[in-house]
Amino acid sequence: TIGGDTSDTGTLPTISAPPLVINEVLASNTTNNSDNTTEFDDWVEIYNNGDTILQLDGFYLSDDEAEKTLFALPAGVGIDAHGFIGIWCDGQADQTTASEYHTSFKLNREGDEVYLNYAEDNQIVTADSVYWEAEQTPDVSAARVPDGTENWVNQAPTFEASNGG
Predict the structure, then answer these.
(1) Are the C-beta atoms of residues 27 and 63 closer than 8 Å to each other?
(2) pTM, two decimal places
(3) Across residues 4-33, what is the average pLDDT?
């Protein structure tokens, strides 16, 4: 307890976050990568910082902290150890295919947030999040360098590939 009765010896459940992180965000894509309809849409890259393949069942992306399950990541799809998956954030979830994923929400280049959430013990928990308050420069992503670390830089986008470092 904090500043109160310490006689309660109950324990809270331990939640161990999976090794997935938001690794790169491009919220102002004008000429970089295009999706399967040749549109230059915004995207988020997720990185598996672990040493084994990780299935995406039970994981979600959202740009709203209060609505943690806006977009369910594709069930039955895995990310290899130290691998990447790109998710288009274009509000066109109906364009999702077996090899390309589109969220039901768009990113705001002038400032937004993205949450990577997962289901555990009948609750939705945030595994990772990133936000930006200033306008993102066109075709310049916010990226973790090296991949999966806490160090964020602005750089040329590297969709579904290592950010370097």
Answers:
(1) no
(2) 0.87
(3) 72
